[in-house]
Amino acid sequence: MLLATIGLALLIPVVAAPLDLHAQLLFSAFCLAAVLLLRKRNHQWVKIGMITLSVIASLRYMYWRLTSSLGFENPLDAVFGYGLLLAELYALTVLLFGYLQTAWPLQRKPLPLPADRSQWPTVDVFIPTYNEPLEIVRLTAIAAHMIDWPKDKLRVHVLDDGRRDSFRQFCEEVGIGYIVRPNNFHAKAGNLNWALKQTDGEYVAIFDADHVPTRSFLQIGIGWFLKDPKLALLQTPHHFFSPDPFEKNLDTFRAVPNEGELFYGLVQDGNDLWNATFFCGSCAILRRAPLEEVGGVAVETVTEDAHTALKLSRLGYNTAYLAIPQAAGLATESLSGHIGQRIRWARGMAQIFRTDNPLLGRGLKIGQRLCYVNAMLHFFYGLPRLVFLTAPLSYLFFEAEVFQASALMITAYALPHILHASITNSAIQGRFRHSFWNEVYETVLAWYIMPPVLLALVNPKLGKFNVTAKGGVIDRGYFDWKMARPYIVVLGLNLLGLAVGLGKLAFDADASASTLVINLAWTLYNVIITSAAVAVASESRQMRAEPRVNAKINATLALGDGYTIACHTVDFSQRGIGIQLPAGVTVPRGATVDASLYLDDYETSFPATVVFSRDQTIGLHFNQLTTAQQYELAQLTFSRADIWADAWGNSRADTPLSALRDVSRVGIRGIRQLNKATLEEIQLRRAEKVSGPVIAPRNT
């Protein structure tokens, strides 16, 4: 606290020092040159230096903004000007808190367990399910049953809120516990709490129905509990082996980090430094005694997981995060499903902010309070994002002066703030978030999360828990007009603003050219972001109910004539594998083979049929695997931690200019897709007028 006070005291004169235009430009150029030099060195203290320069640039901008740009001369300027100012204050708060969270990730490592396995504790594994298909739950349950842990100390339970006989029969067949309850009160939280009362293991591990654990899950995590008796929660990443709607529709899977990778790759690791790791509902281990002490999993909000962690922290228990993927699951398939999931998260965090605000009450340290507050503030971005997407239109349409300052002064203060934040965040977040993509994600979601968040602040009891569907099929591509409508409107307004601004620049001699150029540049950027958001609404086909995982695993094929081929996989699923054959070798479609997969010296063979053959690539479909073979297949594929570790944080390095180019290309594609969908919709409606309703793959 003393160091923070000293640092703040030294920062104030730097932030508040009055500089004229030329001095400010010189100071900004010096700081920008320094941050560009620092960016070339990959060291944590170097990143702290970059953060310091970014904070100075941002606070100088905001100090200037508050003291030199708010002398509004009419109500219209004041309404638009103060609206933008509030959005900027929100963005600055989130930026500063974000630096606090991610400045120094703890990078915790696993601790070894006692050599004597009899000293290892008992663990109940809970797999809550409601409407997921048995094929999805089967894989998770089998993998959980195969976790490398003493069998007399590992108890796997499927918690079936759907009360399905097929699930009961499966659990009885493989020797897994099956728990149901008399009602569905409090959804997932109630399901887990009922299971707590039916079991007695020292620890509880929880996996969503589609999150498949690796064999090493408990050995990686339990060691920290044995060292720290106050540790109540250990969370691991949510890693996904299928693309989410952004990755699928924009074709960026494994090339651009997805929306959640920043949180699991960096933010949670940063939270761990402050003893503020969030429970995320799956892929986690909890100590039973503290969990029961807080009354079980929280039921007061629809984000029961984060609220539970907050309650544990208030009682003085510790939390931990291991940034090592130890499970993998299915991402949401459709844009509508993805938005529905984010709405639930946003509503729940707003409910916690309203009913159990981390800034208030006892038990939390300052770092914990700020980490929780920033997580909750994040979901309030809906209104500020819409303000930023429309702010320059206030000048282009109504000539409202939202900055009461010259264009050069605005540039001298605002541009360093923007550039420093972009370069610094790229250096800190580059493995897990590429520049500008966050604006695309927020633009898509802003309109939808804004109303439930604001309603939850007024009445936290509004809204209900909704289950995110997984494992679906999209048999025909279509443009989701319903989901895209809000940002199509915003795109149209910005395109119109661009036309109006260019017209004024060309034909209005009285217009301020410099002010127009600034607003036109801002509007052009908004066009790029909103057109990329439109591209997300063009749903791609997904013909496989079970996405395949790209992985290279040594294999051999035994053909019917006794010939054996050494090869390797290119992908796998529960139902089949893709094989890369040696040069010059082919296997015809329809051939029956025995496919052997290897893990070190371990080998298992699976009967399969060739269902696809092209050059040196073939696709195999497994033939009626026995339960024992399903266990063996899971061990050789989904339960291998190395497969998920190889894909973790390994996308190409981020550079802001390259990222802006990529987003711009996606934006151009979005406009083309919108034009195509519009023409198809017009043709469809014309056909309906002539011959009646036409069945078509559309979403209106």
Written account of the structure:
The protein is α+β, with helices and mostly antiparallel strands. The protein folds into 3 domains: 2-103 and 380-460 and 478-539, no CATH class; 120-332, Spore Coat Polysaccharide Biosynthesis Protein SpsA, Chain A; 552-636, Thrombin, subunit H (Beta Barrel), CATH 2.40.10.220. The protein is built from 23 helices and 19 strands. A 7-stranded mixed β-sheet has the order 3-2-1-4-8-6-9, sandwiched between helices. A 6-stranded antiparallel beta barrel has the order 14-15-16-19-18-17. The longest helix has 36 residues, at 656-691. The radius of gyration is 28 Å and the shape is globular.
Entry summary:
Its EC number is 2.4.1.12. The protein is of the alpha+beta class and 700 residues long. It has 3 domains: 2-103 and 380-460 and 478-539, no CATH class; 120-332, Spore Coat Polysaccharide Biosynthesis Protein SpsA, Chain A; 552-636, predicted glycosyltransferase like domains (Thrombin, subunit H, Beta Barrel).
